[in-house]
Structure formats: C-alpha cells, structure tokens
C-alpha cells in the first residue's frame, strides 16, 4: 500500500466559489510524490484559507485513502511445489477427427461402387464439402448428416449418371480442394462416359501443378488437357466411354521434409 506523507503540500491558489471542504481528489503528479511523481491512490484534502491582496491562498493537508491497486502483500501466496501422482491406468473412448484425404477417397470409392455405402466420421472441411457437391453434380444420390458426421452414398456402378442425363459440358468447381481435384480428374476419365467435363477452382487452385497426372492419363489413352497451358487447372476431359489403358512413364520425385 502506498505510504502517504503527513507533510504539508505546497500552497495552491484557487477560485473558491464552488469549493467545499474537505474533498477527496485524485491528485496530480505534483501533489503526490513518488518515483514518477504518481501513484494509484486518492487523498482527502482539507483547505485552510488565508487572504491577501492577490486573492485567497489555500494551504492543503492530506490523509491517505485506501489504494485502488492490490499490492504483493495482499495477493495469496503460490504453493511452493505441485506434486503430480503417476498414472497407473487409463480407460475411456477417444474419437479422433477424420482425415480429409481419407474422407474424400472413401466418398469417391463409394460413388464408383455398387449399392449403398454409409461413411462415418467424415471430417467437416472445405475439401470434403467440395467432394460431396461434385458427386451430386455427377448425378449421384448423396445424403449427409453433419450432426453425426455421416454421409450415405448410392453407388453408380462405375458410370456417373450425369453422363447420360446431359449433353452439355459438366462443370465441377472444387475450390482449393486438391484432395478432390486430382482423384476426380482420373475418375471422370474412367467413369464419365462420353460426356465433357471441366474441373476448375479458385485462383489459388490454378497455381497448383497437375501436369504429371494429366500426362499419365494421356498415356493411358485419355483425352484430357490443362487447356490454359500452365500444367495447372482448369482441366478439360472429353470422355471416351472409359480408359483404354496402356503403359505409363512418369518422372520420379523425392521430397524430404525438414527434421
């Protein structure tokens, strides 16, 4: 707590019209000495008037008022040590969040298969939402329950229904979902019938290379290209009723992460 001085404060010159005494004031730095001329406390000031030919002079004395900020003496003391007892047994259930990569691969496999597939513990992410939207655009029946992170997919049996329902170019917008763009590019080549497709995304997606995949699909007989000439999306696919097949020669890349 701040120590208050009982010494007389300097004489102050006031206009005493609306002055009542004693008053409680928050002092200016000149009234309350300290290391910086200031502390967080108030003083009760009593004014004694003396008059001269220049007006009234008030001599102020003060008494301390309780500090507004807690000091170290007022705070509870921290324990000297905290003892953690060893754990001998743990039991319970931990539900881990799903993987966007695994979620999208399972959804696509469910779409290509026959029958109904129920996928549980889907990750709630942009990549997964773009994949679900693309499957619906391809004509698949998809029911989603976000409250329990579950999706039910009616399989197409290897041929996307939209290929027989429209002669227009089918647009698949995939945002920045790389885990949807790459697998779907190969999937519409193999299961897209004779329809035409364009797979595109946000500007950032148009900076993400996909040329190696496109090159591999071309060697298998697909009519596919990055039509902007950047080896990045958008990708155009002209369906041929399937993928003829063949040998593929690709460049091998090795990537080492930082330790």
Would you kindly provide a written description of the structure presented here, covering whatever features stand out?
Pfam families: EPSP_synthase (PF00275). InterPro entries: Enolpyruvate_Tfrase_dom (IPR001986), Enolpyruvate_Tfrase_sf (IPR036968), EPSP_synthase_CS (IPR023193), RNA3'P_cycl/enolpyr_Trfase_a/b (IPR013792). This is Enolpyruvate transferase domain-containing protein. One of its GO terms (molecular function) is 3-phosphoshikimate 1-carboxyvinyltransferase activity. With 259 residues, this protein is of the alpha+beta class. 20% of the residues lie in helices and 21% in strands. A four-stranded antiparallel β-sheet has the order 1-4-3-2, with no helix packed on it. The N terminus is likely disordered.
Q: What is the number of helical segments per DSSP (H or I, 4+ residues)? A: 5
- The level 1 CATH classification of the domain at 100-238 is Alpha Beta
Order of helices and strands: EEEEHEHEEHEHEHEE
CATH superfamily of the domain at 100-238: Enolpyruvate transferase domain
Short description:
The protein is an alpha+beta fold and 259 residues long. Helices cover 20% and strands 21% of the residues.
Characteristics:
5 helices, alpha+beta, UDP-n-acetylglucosamine1-carboxyvinyl-transferase, Chain, 259 residues, 11 strands, transferase, four-stranded mixed β-sheet, 3-phosphoshikimate 1-carboxyvinyltransferase activity, Enolpyruvate_Tfrase_dom, four-stranded antiparallel β-sheet
